[in-house]
Amino acid sequence: MNSLVTLAQSLSIAYASGISLYATVTLVGIGERYGWIGPLPGLLSVLGNPIIIGIAAFLTLVEFLATLIPGVASAWEVAHTMIRTPAAAALAIATAWHADPMIIALAGLLGGGLGLTTNLTKLGLRVAVDASPEPVSNGIVNTAELGIVAAMCYSMWQHPIVALVAALTLLALTMLLVRAVWRAIRNLLSEQKLSRSAPSQHP
User: Which H or E element spans position 188?
Assistant: First the structure.
């Protein structure tokens, strides 16, 4: 049971990191620092260091502001695909560092894969949202993401199995949402193309 709990915690932090690495480190670090969560397993107690919290909080703010700008948001997500995936694996391994070597290996493999899948799904949604030329929709998405990360950063230590199930459910629902949004965009573009070509067919 302890191994299952450790693996659930590892995968949950990987999922949160796939959404926002900087916010995850900030919130887990603050929670550890002020005793709201923890004691953290493995090597994660280092996240409570004020320097790490400060740097991560600054990067969280930069990320929030950058992803309010259409176009920049998509570019940011593309660039961070190469950052969040190994970081998700590293945090998953750090979480399981006290466990059996097999659990550590599974945490790294599955955590990296989950972090990548989460980030790619988020990228698909962000590119679709970027189709609108105003920052309001990006702001809504940013706020929702921070809310999910905050909930995960607390619940993964209190109810790790429930948190992991919720994370996987949210990931599946997000995939369906991305598919629906892209289908709607494709249909809209097809309708616009047909409407533009209609006059030339009937002079």
Answer: helix 160-201
Q: Do residues 111 and 12 touch, judged by C-beta distance below 8 A?
A: no
Q: What is the largest CA-CA distance in the chain?
A: 76
- Give the C-alpha separation, 203 to 199, whole Å: 6
Helix, strand, coil abundance in the chain, percent, nearest 5: 85, 0, 15
Please tell me the number of Cα atoms within 13 Å of 142 on its side-chain side. Answer: 22
Which residues of the chain fall below pLDDT 50?
A: 202-203
pLDDT at 187: 76
| H or E element at residue 3 | helix 2-19
Q: Are 13 and 28 contacting, i.e. CB atoms less than 8 angstroms apart?
A: yes
CA atoms of 192 and 19, how far apart (whole Å): 33
* Structure confidence by residue, pLDDT tens digits, 44-90: 989 999 999 999 999 999 999 998 888 888 899 999 999 999 999 99
**Phi/psi-derived region of residue 38, left when phi > 0, alpha when psi is between -120 and 50, beta in every other case:** left
Closest CA to 14 of 118, 97, 100: 118
SS3 156: helix
